[in-house]
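Cross-posted from the bioinformatics board.
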Amino acid sequence: MKNIDRLAVILVGEFRTWVRASEYLFKFFDQRAHQVDYFFITWNVTSQTGELIPVTEEMIREPFDRRGTNLINFKILEPIGRHRTTFYNQAYLAKIGNLLKKKQEFQGSFIYDQVVETRPDCYFRTTSTSWKMCKDFEFEAEGIPRVWSNGLLGMTDVYIRTNSMTNDIIADRYYFRKNKFLASLIEKSSWKFNDHHWTISDFLMHRRLIFLDYAASKSDHPILCGDHRFFCCIRPNFPEDMDLDAEDYRTLDHLFVSYKKNEEFFYGPRGNSPLVDINTD
Amino acid sequence: MNLIIANHYLKDAELWRLALGVGTVLDIHEKDKLKAFAEISIKLDELIYLKHTPVDWVLYAFEEKEIHWGKFLKIEPAVSKTDDTIFLADSLTGNFYCRPHVFSMLGGLYKLNTQDNRLFAESRASADITKMLYSIVRSGYDIKLL
């Protein structure tokens, strides 16, 4: 299944359950590439239960050191506090991760075969088929941009695989703006789409990028193709002694969804509505 | 206006900066054009995202006689900060102005795969120009003469 020579994994987002998620993420990517280079960009605080916990270099490094994996570079940043929204927070971290990746390539005179941007708190269940390579302007993601129940286009934003050139384009979305007036109108009639799910989808459409079509590959079971067949975010309520790989996906999904009542702790002082005027900073 | 003069082969970029009355000179050392774009993109990202320096415009300065400052000042107030257009001074091979985010795409051009794409075999333009035009169109950017 290892059909990638050199894979860059750019982990962006709040630290959260990184220590728990790391063992599964390492295993997930190790199966796919001969060399996996990690970049880790996060904020200097994390909140899971309402309490702000400082994030240190040791907390990030420990799982890499324990596993002997290749942490190329990392950054622990002050919260940007500007657009206090999920979309712009993630976009900012993605941009810094992309910068570190670009510098690594430029200084080392090589190009990564594939690049994954994902989060440090996610669990992905692998598939048994080889990954189809993303070419220029193609991406593989956690779910295709699709029309959701009230007619607007949205997608999950936890995982995007591309080649290196397309990652340079996708990671450059912090400048992207929604029209505040238009967004306000949509927000009134369609609250579900006032957030990062439709903003990222809108951005990918704006850049004319194409979803990687696993269904067009030779497999008889396209539904079992793709980079993974199940994902969830690992929340603090996941039992410590539970082997996530051995659990039925419905059990994990239930744990994930049932923690949602505590989600305000995750957002802290942030909102989730990326309303920014076209010409504002 | 926070202008970056990405100096790629001007004899005296500092003199130009003084003449224009605005700008910061960023000297680019890569000789190859597309690798120079990559160097500019890395330096811009460091300026904007790590050092938090505001950058409104980038002038890619390659040809001494193609600054066209007056023409640029005429269009500048009407261009949104999110605009994706590359404003060419005279030609595809020379100077241009653009918003800084456009260099994220330009900086990746040297990675573009040309082997499986007949466009590159059939094009009469140079490989660099073909890559530039193809990517501009393919990923929704724009191009315009000043």
